[in-house]
Amino acid sequence: MSTLEVKDLYVSVQDNNEEKQILKGLNLKMSTGEIHAIMGPNGTGKSTLSSTIMGDAKYHINSGDILLNGESILDWPVDQRARAGLFLAMQYPAEIPGVTNAEFVKAAVNARRPKNDPVPMGEFMKELQSTLKTLDMTMEMAGRYLNQGFSGGEKKRNEIMQMMMIKPSFAILDEIDSGLDIDALKVVSRGVNLMRGDNFGALLITHYQRLLNYIEPDFVHVMMGGKIVKTGDASLAKRLENEGYAKLRDELGLDIKLVDEDA
């Protein structure tokens, strides 16, 4: 079993020549075998959390720690975190002309294997074909340049395909449901559910209950004001869908203004 822990994390970002505090003492612990979901109003720091865990340099960690299997990873570069088993499916994946999907995924798979033991080509292609079929993607997608000319739905499926091939210990899925129709949402959810098991954990960052209808989380966390203010089971997400965030904020006695409230 592997663990990922965020301890009392304070994170800021440069905004108009000023340091803007975004995360304000966030705590989270998860283990492989678990699916966690984070929900919260706009502007509360959900995407900041995902980017900080993966080591995005534009975010400044003021204090706190991020531990992978008990070891701090604050000084680790992005590629070291990825090799150690962390994976981020981004909201807006970058387009990389000149590098095909298959080339990119094969390099990523080999990066997690011993240097003298690359994945055999036949084994790689067989698994790639199977994974593409699972996600209703064609082999033609494997030969296209990474995300170039892809629709929003194709990019999201492609992120899940990479996750399934790389087999990380922990996947952070940042609004993987954004912009997907029902059919595409079902396909993406299928890929995540096939990964569930003792050697895999996921952190789903989402605004909507509908994703959690297809990927049932073990834990749901609510973020407000840059930290987690409440944790529950899957029923908490359904409550938020029905009641919204303002009622929970008032119930908890929090002095937090929600971004989408009238001034």
Automatic annotation (TrEMBL):
Organism classification: Bacteria, Bacillati, Bacillota, Bacilli, Lactobacillales
PROSITE patterns on file: ABC_TRANSPORTER_2 (PS50893)
Keyword Electron transport among UniProt keywords: no
NCBIfam families xrefs: sufC
Keyword Nucleotide-binding listed: yes
Keyword terms of this UniProt record: ATP-binding, Nucleotide-binding
Domain ABC transporter stretches: 4-250
Entry-linked Pfam families: ABC_tran
InterPro entries reported in the protein's UniProt record: AAA+_ATPase, ABC_transporter-like_ATP-bd, FeS-cluster_ATPase_SufC, P-loop_NTPase
Family: Belongs to the ABC transporter superfamily. Ycf16 family.
SMART domains reported for this sequence: AAA
Protein origin, superkingdom: Bacteria
Name the UniProt record assigns to this protein: FeS assembly ATPase SufC
Organism of origin: Lactobacillus psittaci DSM 15354
MF-aspect GO terms: ATP binding; ATP hydrolysis activity
